[in-house]
Amino acid sequence: MNETELPGVKPFLKWVGGKRKLLPHILPMLPAKFGRYHEPFVGGGALFFARRPERATLADSNSRLVRAYRGVRDHVDEVVLRLSDMPHEKATFEKVRASDVDAMSDAGVAWWLVYLNKTGFNGLYRVNSRNIFNVPFGDMTAPRICDEPRLRACSHALQGVEVLESEFETVLDRAEKGDFVYFDPPYVPMSASSCFVSYTKTGFDMPAQQRLVEVAATLKRRGVHVLLSNSAAPAVYELYSAFDIQEVSLNRLVGASAASRGKIKELLIR
Ligand SMILES: C[S@@+](CC[C@H](N)C(=O)[O-])C[C@H]1O[C@@H](n2cnc3c(N)ncnc32)[C@H](O)[C@@H]1O
Question: What's the CATH number for 73-157?
Answer without folding.
Answer: 1.10.1020.10
